[in-house]
Amino acid sequence: MNQALRAAARRAIGFMPEPDGLLLYEAGVQAGVLGPLLEIGGYCGQSAIYLGAAARQAGTVLFSVDHHRGSEEHQPGQEYHDHRLFDAATGQMDSLATFRRTIAAAGLEDAVVAIVGRSRLVADHWRTPLGLVLIDGGHSEEAAQADYQGWTKRVLPGGFLAIHDVFEAPAEGGEAPFHVYRRALASGEFREERAHASLRLLRRVL
Ligand code: SAH
Ligand code: MG
């Protein structure tokens, strides 16, 4: 991944550490020859730079799904609240404008398509097979399981399912992404390919 894009990703607001992002980039370059890439959890565009760069490299696009209203932990008074993303006019979180600025600044508007809506709603209407799906959205059990249910079936044979914020110990974070990771392995449809920090990269084998 070129230095300008890496620098843009480092400048972006977000929760995607660079080593995790570079692993996603590598996976995305491989997966992009199979089909488009899709992430759940666009937030302010940090992970979208890594996957958008990969999509462009592979000649495809990244779809970035987010309602842009923040997860539980982003709401006012919660641990990961960022006051810059609070829209006083509506009294809600709104990360969409920041997402757009991030992608524009990185020069990736032709490779990254924002889809604004609830993950489950979008998934219910989605039919396009995908080269890679990144689950990095809501961390409640309900949200994470719905993401698995709604999106995993779209991953093409040989394609990747990436799961972020997988922590085995409850104290380190929510356990829902870990449960989704276990579910994917238990299905027999995915094999673990790479892992770094809280990122798990699985490949569809069935
Ligand atoms: N990938 C981002 C971090 C994502 S944070 C990065 O690189 O920094 C999680 C995001 O998931 C939040 O922006 C939140 O709005 C979104 N989200 C949570 N639940 C969702 C749902 N059910 N549908 C769509 N987006 C959701
Ligand atoms: Mg994350």
Please, could you describe this protein's structure?
It is built from seven helices and nine strands. The strands form two sheets. It has a seven-stranded mixed sheet, with helices on both faces. Strands 3-4 form a two-stranded antiparallel sheet. The protein is α/β, with parallel strands linked by helices and about 210 residues long. The protein starts with a helix and ends with a strand. The model has no long low-confidence stretch (mean pLDDT about 95). It is globular and about 50 Å long. The protein binds S-adenosyl-L-homocysteine (SAH) and magnesium ion (MG). S-adenosyl-L-homocysteine (SAH) binds next to helix 3 and strand 2.
Strand order of the largest sheet: 5-2-1-6-7-9-8
DSSP strand tally = 9
User: Mind telling me the C-alpha Rg?
Assistant: 16 Å
Report the helical percentage. 25-40%
Shape: globular
Structural class: alpha/beta
Mean pLDDT: 97
* Biggest pleated sheet: 7 strands, mixed
Low-confidence stretches: none
Bound molecules: S-adenosyl-L-homocysteine, magnesium ion
Strand content: 15-25%
Features:
single chain; alpha/beta; 7-stranded mixed β-sheet; two-stranded antiparallel ribbon; 7 helices; 22% strand; binds S-adenosyl-L-homocysteine; binds magnesium ion
Please write out the topology.
Layout: H1 3-11, H2 18-31, E1 37-40, H3 46-58, E2 62-66, E3 86-87, E4 92-93, H4 96-105, E5 112-116, H5 119-124, E6 130-135, H6 141-151, E7 155-163, H7 176-186, E8 190-196, E9 199-204
Helix pairs in contact: 1-3, 2-3, 6-7
The protein binds S-adenosyl-L-homocysteine and magnesium ion (MG).
Magnesium ion is lined by residues 15, 136, 164-165.
